[in-house]
Amino acid sequence: WRDWIEVTGSVANPYYECIALAYEHSTGYPMAVAAVYGSETRVAWTRYTGRWSEPKIMDVNPSPRSRRARWLTLKSQRLKDSNRLMLLSLDEGYDVCAVEWNGKEWLKPIRLDGYVERYTTRCIDGDWEPENGKGRFIAVCGDRNVDEISYKIYTPEKGWDPPEEGKWYRYRGLTTDQRWVQVRADPRGVGHAQLLIGTVDDRRYLIITQWDGERMGEQIIATKYVGTLTYETFEIAFQLYGEPTERTVEIEVYGGSDLEDWSGLTWIVDSACTAPSASVTLQLYDYKAGRYPTSGDGYIHYTSSSTPNTDETVNQTITDNPERFRDGSGRWKMKATRVKRSSEPLRFKLDLVEFKPSHPQQTCSLELLGSGDTEPWFSLLWKIDSSWSVGEVNVTLQLYNYEDDKYPTSGDGYINYISSSTPNVDETVSQNITSNPDAFRDLDGSWKLKITGVKDSSTPFQLRLDLVEYQPRESAGYTASTAFTFTDVATDDPEELKFKMVGDHTLSGVEVTLQLWNYTADAYAQGGPGYLTYTSSEANETRWLNITSGAGDFVEGGEVKLRVTSHHRSQFTQRVNLLKMDYAYSSDKLPYDVYKTYLIRVYDGVTEEPRPYASLTIYSNGTAVEFEGLSNPAFVHADENGEYRLALKSSNPEGEVFKLYVLVGSVAAERRIMQE
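The structure assignment produced for this chain is given below.
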């Protein structure tokens, strides 16, 4: 609270309503009035226009027998561009007076009547007609010993009607002498009744009368006993809204992205509505314009399906300055609005919102040609050593498959990796093809190879090619293969597998391949995770085979199979002197009152790609479960990799088994956890 001001140091009477406040309709400035203690009907007033004006005193009763005011009412005219106010006063001399504020100054006061029903009760009130009326002020009075409702009509710049003091229009209805009067205007200006008049008469009847802009009428008796005439024990008001003819649901969604250069932006919304044929508007906030767009980029409008609850997916791709739809921190927001002309409520189900910027890409591609022989091949080893002038290039190496007449996109003849994060670092990659290696040459023994590097960037980069080796092997030679089986693995879904092997051969230069059995593919790994090749060179060589993702593919029923295959053109002996396996896994058991972190990954059910920044609802039904730093349930977002790490603990002294639930849109998952 601020800007206090003393309107008067002594009001006329502390037991009666001799102060009033109203706002000018156009300017919104408030006007405060207060009756001043003394022998005349003096009123102090002040107006707030950013600060309160110095209070001034005016006499609102032009009669020489002016007395102290008991009651003041102040009403504003609610018409466009109007700042008119009307002040009514009732003083101890039974006088009713009125004075208008025209927005700039108080006009000349006038006495409407010199002898009304009471001054100990407020038997005078009035209000301005609303917008659907003529903009006049209707004053209603309980006149002395008059059963009828008495009223005068004030037209700005014309005056009062009837103009004579003590003369009123009368409406003969259900009332007797009125002790209390309330007048309220329709704030919406839409109904048949422009004003409601509530009166309590000397029988203690509360009667409601309507003013329709031309006449009084349509009276009802609200009650025949208000209990007391000493106090104002009733209040009348218009309903501030009608029955709804249109329903609107509006949702605003927030998200985060990066601050890289964008070449385009695709946003996707999947939603449904319980009402058919609703008007749907989707808007992305334009931070450059500082508003939601109403057309063009960032704006989608359509009419929903005529069948309720039908999922509909819409999207838009923006290529013109897409960065304007994020702020300086990479944040973005979207508004979804559904409108239906109906009195029935509706629900808007938002199932998916995707915000997918695309980045400028630079591509460097090179095709190499070579020739070999036409002899039968046992295997084909191809090797490339290269470097790039920038870090983290997506590199694809492809050997042309002449049987399929195309470059392969997976398997033999295909290698894909991300180069070092440090520019200009030499990296050697290779692949040994043992299944139909002849497919990678033509009838004349010619071959070709393509190297492609792609990076999201607006800056060009260079490839430095140091070595390309194409080495077919024609002799089958000698092979030793040993399979090892590990049992009693505690879980079929470990997070990580690590193998350490120490071994040697009786010859140097033996080609060694380590392969894990992939239970998902039902075969030994031919590349990627679970696959390692090297050429032995010394005794007791130590080699590591680590699987940090997808480790569950290599375990089934608590068993893991590892095959060690050695090959050389001459006879040799394979020796495995040490083979050790370590594994890590997430246990369903949770120690008492100890926080444990659970990793939640969100994937697209169709593409199996991670869902970055996906919205998650996390809930546990445990009786003593606490999420670290979060409420239960919690509403969170995955990170840029579609992952969220949740730390929780349970402190039930007796232990319990509970579940952790995760909801993404309409897709739910759960995990059983046992607190020890």
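Interim note for the steering committee: The mean pLDDT is 91. Residues 361-473 form a domain with the Jelly Rolls fold (CATH 2.60.120.260).
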